[in-house]
Amino acid sequence: MDVPEKILNGPVLNHIECLRRFILAFKNERQELEIRLGRIVGKDDGMRMKMDAVAPIVFKNLPADYKFESAVDSEDFRKLKELFSKHLSEKNEDVIVINEDGRETYEGNVLKKVEKKIRTEKLDIYLPGKKYDVRLVLNEEKETFKQASKKKTLVKRIRKRETYFIEPYGFDFTEVLVSGDRDEKKKLEVEVEVFDSEKLVSGNFISLIHNFNIDLVFK
């Protein structure tokens, strides 16, 4: 990362304060807050970012040659899911069709809702000592008239999801088949949604970001 790029889009060193401000924005605006597990990887080689750090590093904007990939390995998907084996869960299968008009959600071939999801803010967090990095996303969702669009499908997501509830969180474990113009791939996604901003405690949320993960084992 060159000097101008580092100044404009470099990491935020005081990550705790940055996270607290992010949480405050969520509480004030009543938006949807998601935590996604994945990896910050190079766009060319797909390798995870490596930084000489012992504390988490927060990026408001990733360097131009990196991206966040929201997915986990199958064994880690199983391990994380097992943590909630004694909690209540809800299963759901649906199909998400994304086009220029928004997101259409289908259940059993029946259109359930059409919405526009607008990302208002995001943070990417590099977690040294952990297998996965984290993306925090604030979204604003607006439901529109329930009618299928005639626009071309950009992305189609066939999902099988199980959600475990521990107030104020929903822990989503999703098996998804993603298809676009050129390819089709299966992914395992792990996300946490915050359902009740009034019951969100900053300290607990920051702890969750650090600890809901897989530790790296150094040999």
From TrEMBL:
Gene Ontology BP terms: 7-methylguanosine mRNA capping
EC number annotated for this UniProt entry: 3.6.1.74
Species this chain originates from: Ordospora colligata OC4
Subunit structure as annotated in this protein's UniProt entry: Heterodimer. The mRNA-capping enzyme is composed of two separate chains alpha and beta, respectively a mRNA guanylyltransferase and an mRNA 5'-triphosphate monophosphatase.
Designated name of the protein: mRNA-capping enzyme subunit beta
One Gene Ontology cellular component annotation held by this UniProt entry: mRNA capping enzyme complex
Compartment(s) of residence: Nucleus
Single annotated GO MF: mRNA 5'-triphosphate monophosphatase activity
Pfam families assigned to the protein according to its UniProt record, in alphabetical order: mRNA_triPase (PF02940)
InterPro entries xrefs: Cet1/Ctl1 (IPR040343), CYTH-like_dom_sf (IPR033469), mRNA_triPase_Cet1 (IPR004206), mRNA_triPase_Cet1_sf (IPR037009)
Function comment: First step of mRNA capping. Converts the 5'-triphosphate end of a nascent mRNA chain into a diphosphate end.
PANTHER family: POLYNUCLEOTIDE 5'-TRIPHOSPHATASE CTL1-RELATED, POLYNUCLEOTIDE 5'-TRIPHOSPHATASE-RELATED
Catalysed reaction, written as an equation: a 5'-end triphospho-ribonucleoside in mRNA + H2O = a 5'-end diphospho-ribonucleoside in mRNA + phosphate + H(+)
Ranges where the mRNA triphosphatase Cet1-like domain occurs: 95-194
Family: Belongs to the fungal TPase family.
Leading EC class: hydrolase
Cofactor names: Mg(2+)
Alphabetically ordered keywords of this record: Hydrolase, mRNA capping, mRNA processing, Nucleus
